[in-house]
Amino acid sequence: MPDFMGTNFEFIPFGAGRRSCPGMQLGLYSMEVAVANIIHCFSWQLPDGMKPSELDMSDVMGLTAPRATRLIAVPTTRLICPL
Ligand code: HEM
Questions:
Q1: 25 CA to middle of ligand 1, Å?
Q2: Of residues 26, 23, 22, 28, the one with CA closest to residue 3
């Protein structure tokens, strides 16, 4: 995967050059904490006995590259988190 610091123009989520995002580190840390909490606090399963191999991982073209079909994952509480 190319790095996203601004030199690989195919992947610049925070922009590039003099106008690039000054909040990049805060953004990255915030996402890391959010994802870590989601994984830590819940167990995740696919719906209706669906197998991981049945997941459609294709994407569609656009300004971003969203999934072609929605990912449905069912959470069950694993811990009582303080958030
Ligand atoms: C995942 C989180 C974030 C993403 C993906 C993101 C992405 C971006 C992008 C694409 C730009 C435009 C860069 C350009 O014009 O080349 C931008 C600009 C900016 N971002 Fe962020 N950003 C994030 C979080 C933040 C945070 C947390 C802050 C502040 C606390 C912030 C403050 C700014 C500011 C002030 C600009 C304007 C910079 C300028 O044009 O002078 N961003 N951001």
A1: 10
A2: 28
How remote is the C-alpha of 45 from its chain's centroid? 17
Token output for 71:
């990912």
Nearest CA to ligand 1 atom 29: 23
Question: What is the DSSP secondary structure assignment for residue 61, as one 8-state letter?
Answer: -
pLDDT tens-digit profile of 31-83? 999 999 999 999 999 999 999 999 999 999 987 789 999 999 999 998 876 65
- Predicted local confidence at residue 9, as pLDDT: 86
Nearest atom, ligand 1, residue 31 CA: 1
Which residue type sits at 30? S
Distance CA 65, CA 52 (A): 21
Nearest-CA residue for atom 23 of ligand 1: 27
